[in-house]
Amino acid sequence: MEILLANHYQWQYFNGTSWxxxxxxxxxxxxxxxxxxTDYRVFVHADESGCDDVYSAIVSVEIVPEISISADPEGxxxxxxxxxxxxxxxxxxxxxxxxxxxxxxxSWVSTGFDQPSFNTGPLSATTDFRVFVYSNVSGCDDVxxxxxxxxxxNDLSINTQPVGGSICTGGNFDLSVSATxxxxxxxxxxxxFNGVSCQLFG
Length: 202
Hints:
Helix content is 0%, strand content 43%.
């Protein structure tokens, strides 16, 4: 008949000077709340005569900084059907994850991948976004970014098209156009067709 030895476990942590006994006589041990990186080991021994007592390898439970966001995502303006890329900069835990969310008018909906950058894809309506930054490391507080709004505006439209006319050789002609947009600053690039392709001018 097989005889099983009665192993005993004495967990210890290092206080900077000496090893301190902690825990109960179990093969597993929970450190409880920690505020500083701490080294641990376990002393394993048996009651039976002649059995060698052994110490485990020393392991460190590292305390890492809390997660913090140093740069929140910033929104912008796009035309209907356009897309926009949002970015966040976070630090702290070595195991940071990202869950992007958009607001559908009544609740926040998860979207995107576990990355610090997110592209909205084509949008047809103004939409609010945020990112939930979290870690699987015990004790790390999860954080939400500030809300970033991607404003969707109507496409540019030309109200009055340019009208051509006749001039003599060497003359010149004034062309004008009237365009509207919700954007505050419109830009105009006039082009001339040379028989093969359009050339920029003006």
